Amino acid sequence: MAKFVYADNAGTTAMSKTALDAMLPYLTDYYGNPSSIYSLGRKSRAALDSAREKIASALNARPEEIFFTGGGTEADNWAIHAALEKMGKKGKHIVTSSIEHHAVGHTLAALEKNGYEVTYLPVDGNGQISLSELENAVRDDTVLVTIMMANNEIGTILPIAEIARIAKSKGALFHTDAVQAVGHIPVDVRALDADMLSLAAHKFRGPKGVGALFVKKGHAIPAFILGGGQERGRRSGTENVAGIVGMAAALEEAVQNMDGNIVKITKMRDRLIKELLKIPYSRLTGDPVNRLPGTASFVFECIEGEALVLSLDAKGVCASSGSACSSASLDPSHVLLAIGLKHEVAHGSLRLTVNEANTEDDIDYILDVLPPIISRLRDMSPLWEEKMNVRA
Ligand SMILES: *Cc1c(COP(=O)(O)O)cnc(C)c1O
User: Fold this and answer.
1) Which of 174, 243, 345, 366 is geometrically suited to a Cys-Cys bond with 210, CB 3.0 to 4.6 A?
2) Is 200 in the pocket of ligand 1 (CB under 6 A)?
3) pTM flag (> 0.90)
4) CATH superfamily of the domain spanning 5-13+258-391
5) Is 302 a catalytic residue?
6) Does the beta carbon of 199 lie inside 6 Å of ligand 1?
């Protein structure tokens, strides 16, 4: 059988067996509506309560601080709108970074058309903001600082505790998109002192279409979806019971195994980085030190990222170029441009993301098939020919 290697775990993950097994009863026998008072319904209600406790415990939060959502995008949208509504009297200014996921970036862009002002903090070549620039950017009328915990394209981990401290010392609310961090690196909402934090189950081997927003106790945030009053009246709609149960099981498992997983995953990532940087005219993207355990991200000069991804697919390897969400457009990703790459270099990006389901065999296979693909693509590239002629 041809080899298959899934190395796009920042895009989504395969579900863990633990998560699937936990979900199945709630997709079959226990289909009661959690709002019903008969015992079948109470069974679902108990499962929701238990899931909320597990998720809260994994984040060092309290159960009443966890609100279930339909994924990371919804949690990000909700956090931003909730902050603006709650803080409306203070002002209309928001501070963010220039490398946020579109769930944050496009939400803020829409708000700019609606009378809000947004400051996009630049990042350095590693994808880090400057804390002194942040300090200068937060004003008396700043209502929200929203900055991601870890970047989905280049794997950079940002110093969220320090960022939160600066935001809050100036009276702004602080939200972090922790979708890439939760389940992969320690996330403790009390230590970070975040007001709000977003997560999504399918990035840590849970099911798709389910996530959560942490909201610190004491912030009576406004409702996001109106209806039957679920999620304490804040997010109505019959709960995705099986999905929520799967998310809790996946997160509990990820947190229990985190220390060992980080060691195993980092080793695979570092082998990819070490070996693939031997390819001429290649570069690592993202912070070399403060980076997600599973993210190996690169640019290869004179390569089209799309061609590279398709060639890898033909060899059974799933990888991504830039962000999966922007793969429909021809513009290079805003993240790669923000770290200072030229357009033509950013086009040659490749993101390989591994998790605990991968093996060293997978890494061997990628290291076998990738370098020859790059040579072949470069042999066909007029840009490469030009570059070699100039050199000669
Ligand atoms: C995947 C992702 C999202 C969106 O989450 P969905 O569950 O796909 O809606 C938001 N932010 C980051 C950083 C992500 O990686």
Assistant:
1) 243
2) yes
3) yes
4) Aspartate Aminotransferase, domain 1 (3.90.1150.10)
5) no
6) no
